[in-house]
């Protein structure tokens, strides 16, 4: 028969919960933007982990909502965010910033950018209150691609934060911000102004960015050079990219269009390449 433990002996208890905000480094390690389904599984597991406190699980849930958005499961994403809001008592400014940011991102993916803007502006305010510079920059970069007529203003505000930052993960936002404003200028018929922005994005990628960002940064510079009629320079860059990634559909499309332009007696703007879904005029996305 089992004997009771001696009086006063220590009793085993539940393992202490991990408390405090979830680090961006941990979120980065769980994200794979090329495989949203696998990312969703990881964030679901993290959101269900009772070894974390309520706030930490809720932060993971916001990223689950984002992954659902990338999968086109918008209703599921919105439901996750509603559950976060309903289950979390006295949410921190940081959590409110994440939830608002992902709510806005879902709405924008649903072709509702005007509805998304108030959520992004709320995310900026809450992130600033929390001292969460990374989240503030994420929200500013989303405003720069969503708030029609104010793209350059939001990008400039974000770049001012980047220029003052010393943390390389924060400085990496310069890649996305310069790239976004570059595409805004390019698609507004201002390619001469766009090229310096693409070049700045590439410099940032070479300094603090990822290998993928460097690849996409070079592609964007070459794409803008084509618009400017600098076909030889564009061709050299695209050939270099093709040697590194022979199966890159965006690179192959650009090379075909450059060849078409070079062979034409009168160079006319060729048709835009399409992405894997067949949507024309789509550039590869630079994730922060």
UniProtKB/TrEMBL annotation:
Ranges where the record places region Disordered: 1-23, 269-288
Gene3D superfamilies: Tetratricopeptide repeat domain (1.25.40.10)
Pfam families: TPR_5 (PF12688)
Start and end residues of each Tetratrico peptide repeat group domain: 34-123, 187-258
Alphabetized InterPro entries for the sequence: TPR-like_helical_dom_sf (IPR011990), TPR_5 (IPR041656)
Record's protein name: Tetratricopeptide repeat protein
Source species: Cryobacterium algoritolerans
């Amino acid at each position: 028969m089992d004997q009771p433990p001696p009086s006063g002996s220590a009793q085993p208890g539940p393992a202490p919960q991990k408390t405090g905000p979830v680090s961006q480094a941990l979120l980065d390690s769980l994200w794979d933007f090329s495989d949203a389904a696998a990312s969703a599984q990881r964030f679901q597991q993290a959101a269900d982990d009772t070894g974390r406190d309520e706030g930490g699980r809720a932060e993971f849930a916001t990223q689950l909502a984002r992954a659902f958005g990338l999968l086109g499961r918008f209703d599921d994403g919105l439901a996750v965010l509603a559950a976060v809001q309903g289950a979390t008592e006295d949410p921190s400014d940081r959590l409110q910033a994440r939830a608002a940011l992902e709510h806005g991102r879902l709405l924008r993916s649903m072709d509702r950018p005007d509805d998304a803007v108030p959520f992004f502006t709320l995310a900026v305010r809450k992130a600033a209150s929390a001292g969460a510079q990374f989240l503030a920059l994420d929200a500013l970069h989303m405003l720069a691609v969503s708030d029609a007529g104010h793209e350059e203003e939001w990008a400039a505000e974000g770049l001012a934060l980047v220029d003052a930052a010393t943390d390389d993960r924060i400085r990496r936002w310069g890649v996305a911000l310069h790239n976004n404003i570059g595409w805004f200028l390019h698609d507004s018929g201002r390619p001469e102004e766009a090229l310096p922005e693409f070049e700045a994005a590439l410099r940032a990628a070479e300094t603090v960015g990822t290998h993928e960002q460097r690849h996409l940064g070079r592609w964007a510079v070459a794409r803008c050079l084509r618009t400017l009629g600098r076909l030889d320079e564009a061709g050299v860059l695209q050939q270099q990219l093709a040697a590194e990634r022979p199966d890159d559909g965006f690179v192959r499309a650009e090379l075909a269009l450059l060849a078409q332009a070079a062979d034409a007696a009168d160079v006319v703007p060729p048709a835009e390449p399409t992405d894997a879904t067949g949507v024309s005029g789509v550039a590869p996305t630079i994730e922060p």
